Fold this protein.
Amino acid sequence: MTPVPPPLSALEAKEKVRAALQNAWNRGAAESSPLTLALVSFDTSATAVGVEILERAMKVHCARTNDIVLRRASDEFIAILPATPPHGARRVGEQIVEAMRAADDDHTHRVSVGVAVAVPDEQRGPDDLMRRAQSALDAAREKGGDTCVGGVAPGSNLPRKGALASLRSLLPQAPQDPTRRRQVD
């Protein structure tokens, strides 16, 4: 039987998350593939039972070979999902919320999920993806929790163009200079 490792300190957890996200970012940039970041947080204080339920849910729904699930804080987890487009990202977040509901009849262990997707490039970095996922998580909490925000909801009308073009259309655009006019020949 393998001994259970001691829990990581907050600083160790932060460094482990940072390193894993940077590695996934570098790989996504090299492959020009989308990278999804899902932040999962308990809506109330985490309990041992709730953490166990959430860990099981994340093992099931974030189970691909390159998926990474880490504990970010006592009541927050992070899933780094390489090669996951916006529709798939949103679906993973919704599945985690649904799994928590299904495994917890007394409604004491609910979670909020914030999802962000990017195609890694030189203009942005992994910190931008983390900020966007945190913003989506905050929005899920503001909606009352027990929900997923971010990614693209199933059935939404994304333009039917290439996957890369669809992803880029979701990224924030550079501000336009109002003094600069389009030149016409």
Summary: Helices lie at 10-31, 48-61, 86-103, 126-142, 163-170.
